[in-house]
Amino acid sequence: MLEAVQINDSGEVAAGADTLVGRVMATIRQRIAGRTLAPGAKLPSIRGLAGSMGVSKSTVVEAYERLAAEGAIQARRGSGFYVRRLPPLSLADVAPKLDRAVDPLWISRQSLDADAQSLRPGCGWLPPDWMPEAAIRKALRRLGRAEAATLAEYGTPLGLPALRQLLAHRLAERCVEAAPDQIVLTESGTQAIDLVCRFLLEPGDTVLVDDPCYFNFQALLRAHRARIVGVPYTPSGPDLGLFAQALAEHRPRLYVTNCGLHNPTGATLSAATAHRLLKLAEQAGLTIVEDDIFGDLEPEFAPRLAGLDGLERVIQIGSFSKTLSASVRCGFIAARQDWVEGLVDLKVALSFGGGRLAAELVLDLLKDGSYRRHVEGLRQRLGRAMAETGGRLAALGIEPWLTPRGGLFLWCRLPGDIDAAEIARHALGEGIVLAPGNAFSLSRTARHFMRFNVAQAADPRIFGVLREAMRASASSKPA
């Protein structure tokens, strides 16, 4: 059973654990989370647990009854108490019940299902005509003449050696020292994070995320039955005071974050915050997963936690879905050497050798210089789109939380008391997919915010619908 816990809930959690009944419940929960008590296993007898924990039998009875009421265990008449077998996982059921206009999975599905006539300023990727179509076609023609193994064979467990060598050079440009055998190719950035979670997490482990954060982090962590704790994000990185508090109260296993250009805020991690963050992580034994999929869109490179840390307790992941092609599924993990074998074993178990053809295509585009020229052009084009979209939003009274140094996103506050979910519902009826703030916020404190993808916001109809929806929302409020 998954809990989405914000740090302002911690007082209630601690208070419950301070009672005798609470301590018994916490012990059983810990054994279930650590798989000492597997699904279907019989719990210790009431007499036995009371004796081992030094509490009364009535205390154990009450604890078991409460756990049964929560659905963690079940009573079998005349037999005792057993760990409940988990039903097939449904993320919609695991997550808190949300308005469908702010459900992260729903927003993703609407964006992916949208037809060519729909507008998607709420999605998280570039339009097809922003991608290097001619260069991709040229590379595909070259691959069409490759040897049969390139076209039809599985990839090696670590992934294409030549591409890993090139990625090592690219990481070194950002001061991240990773040998080629510290890099594991994956099908995507999402698969990279999934493999890391499978490698490091057990059900019930606590994971820190930013609040707000990329909403698929939340969905993926729920799929791993993690306990999620949100830490407020500032223009220079996570709030360090609250981050330290969350470390002390929740003892998390992982912290998952973006580096470079933060999603959804567009903020950049400062050097001072990065150094302090790593010191806190070292003191707490925390592992950090640093998602750098937007790094190539950054005009000037900000500090990378993986570079400052030397890949000791930071794992960096990346992909080319956002900058090259979402159809060419190719990502990577850069990690400490002694973790690579475990990650590779998981990759083989889940996807066998991986997609060799996609890796060969990415290698071809990186080698001939076309990708470098492409991303240089993207940065300039995104800069113009950022200014144009910002101006159009400002005319509606919609102001950015900060002015990003680059990238796709503007994280904006709507004027007055307007609810972003209400605006998103109205816009969807007009064929426009928006991304309201609470889809990104674990604490549900971003109802007045919205993320705009400037590359997907060129059509003036978007701003007409926004104006109409905001006017309708304001007129419906009581005077």
Write a structural description.
The chain has helices spanning 10-17, 20-33, 46-53, 57-70, 91-94, 104-113, 133-144, 148-152, 161-173, 189-200, 215-223, 240-250, 271-284, 305-309, 337-351, 356-367, 370-394, 420-429, 461-476; strands spanning 4-6, 73-76, 80-83, 183-186, 206-211, 227-234, 237-238, 254-258, 287-291, 314-319, 331-334, 399-400, 409-413, 435-436, 449-453. The protein starts with a strand and ends with a helix. The model is unreliable at 1-17 and 93-98 (pLDDT under 50). The longest helix is centred in the C-terminal third of the chain and has 25 residues, at 370-394. α2 (20-33) packs across α4 and α3 crosses α4. The protein has 19 helices and 15 strands. The chain has 3 domains: 4-83, Winged helix-like DNA-binding domain superfamily/Winged helix DNA-binding domain (Arc Repressor Mutant, subunit A, Orthogonal Bundle); 93-129 and 372-476, Alpha-Beta Complex (Aspartate Aminotransferase, domain 1), CATH 3.90.1150; 132-368, Type I PLP-dependent aspartate aminotransferase-like (Major domain) (Aspartate Aminotransferase, domain 2, 3-Layer(aba) Sandwich), CATH 3.40.640.10. The strands form 3 sheets. Strands 1, 4, 5, 6, 7, 8, 9, 10 and 11 form a 9-stranded mixed β-sheet that branches. By secondary structure, the protein is an alpha/beta fold.
